[in-house]
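In the current project phase, work has continued on tokenised descriptions of protein folds. One protein thus recorded appears below exactly as we store it.

——
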Amino acid sequence: MKTTWTLPQAIRIYRQYGAELGLPGFAVERAVEAAVPVETTAETRVGRLLERRLHTRPEVCIERARYCTASMRETQGEPQVIRQAKALAHVLANLTVHIEPYELIVGAITGKVLGAGVYPEGIGFRVEGELETIGFREPNPFTVSDEQLWELREEIFPYWRGRTLEDAARARWSPEVSNVMEQAV
């Protein structure tokens, strides 16, 4: 059985399997290249991985935001480059690592089977207004717990107000750029 594919082949296999399962939004597109027969039954490794991916609801993961924020609070007053290095070390030392069964290549940016991280130091506040409805939006709903919502609103986001990369960039923009950016957001 073939276990390596090009990205277009992998995407096609993913969409085809979703369509076979009758999942909404997984219509098979016209093939651009010759079809590659791939065994994707629940008994194969690839089939089990696809099953898990297709039947796992994505979750918001705030671990990275939590650990980055904690480190930045602890290192106030130190040079920024040192603070960033310490924040990365703190995140890597504490982030949940999970290795799923049947994976040959492991590693993820979240501690969830299927997750999305929050990056408050960049432009993370842009998701703040969406947090209440992120579980119900179409497409791509994400699960987020009440505890995570509270921690984001009360512990993480307040620290970053006025300290984000976006805030630093805005302070250096011309009035013309600021006007254009305000209209885009």
Summary: The first strand starts at residue 59 and ends at 61. Strands lie at 59-61, 115-117. The chain has two domains: 7-54, 59-179.
